[in-house]
């Protein structure tokens, strides 16, 4: 009986430690810290067109988690809040990044990845991006596949 109780306590202790470690690593992979990037081209977030420049991405509210993100100019001039959804990769990268979709000269912020994270955040496609995709599909003659979207990655720093 004593052996069974000891085994149960050890198992519960191990489960508690695993939960704590998982919680800490998930927090480190989140957007708890502000990501900063110098974006060399004009781009769109949601329905708002932003000029090239230095931007930061972070949680809109510290207590709300990563569901709503805030994209702002580092000088505080531009602020866009945008709903995001989680995306997962099996190969985390050492550096954080912002991923853009490019259609000709139009760039759209698509994903945000903290450094070392297996979970990033994706932004829903805007009306303008969906329209560009639809027009490209309609203008493609004899192609079975959807048009190719260029994916542009910009490295971020953590602040």
How would you describe what is shown here?
The structure is a single chain. This protein has 159 residues and is of the alpha+beta class. The chain has one domain. The protein has two helices and twelve strands; from the N terminus they run H-E-E-E-E-E-E-E-E-E-E-H-E-E.
Class derived from helix and strand content:
alpha+beta
Helix content class: 25-40%
Q: What is the end-to-end distance?
A: 53 Å
Low-confidence parts:
18-29
The total of helices stands at: 2
What is the total tally of β strands?
A: 12
Number of discrete domains: 1
Q: Give the overall pLDDT as a whole number.
A: 80
User: Which radius of gyration do the C-alpha atoms yield?
Assistant: 20 Å
β-sheet strand percentage = 35-45%
State the strand order across the main sheet.
6-5-4-1-12
Shape: globular
Q: Describe the largest sheet.
A: 5 strands, antiparallel
**H/E series, N to C?**
HEEEEEEEEEEHEE
Structure described in brief:
The chain has 159 residues and is an alpha+beta fold.
List keywords for this structure.
five-stranded antiparallel β-sheet, 159 residues, alpha+beta, globular, 38% strand
What layout of secondary structure does this protein have?
Elements: H1 2-28, E1 35-39, E2 43-45, E3 48-50, E4 53-59, E5 68-73, E6 79-83, E7 85-88, E8 97-103, E9 106-113, E10 119-122, H2 127-139, E11 150-155, E12 157-158
Antiparallel strand pairs: 1-4, 1-12, 2-3, 4-5, 5-6, 7-10, 8-9, 8-11, 9-10
């Amino acid at each position: 009986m004593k052996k069974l109780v000891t085994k149960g306590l050890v198992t519960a202790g191990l489960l508690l430690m695993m939960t704590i470690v998982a919680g800490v690593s998930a927090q480190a992979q989140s957007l708890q810290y502000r990501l900063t990037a110098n974006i060399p081209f004009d781009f769109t977030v949601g329905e708002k067109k932003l000029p090239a420049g230095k931007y930061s991405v972070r949680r809109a509210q510290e207590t709300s988690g990563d569901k709503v993100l805030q994209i702002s100019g580092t000088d505080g001039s531009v602020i866009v809040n945008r709903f995001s959804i989680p995306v997962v990769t099996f190969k985390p990268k050492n550096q954080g990044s912002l991923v853009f979709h490019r259609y000709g000269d139009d760039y759209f912020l698509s994903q945000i990845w903290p450094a070392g994270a297996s979970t990033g955040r994706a932004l829903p496609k805007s009306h303008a991006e969906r329209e560009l995709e639809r027009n490209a599909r309609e203008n493609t003659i004899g192609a079975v596949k959807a048009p190719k979207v260029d994916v542009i990655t910009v490295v971020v720093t953590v602040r």
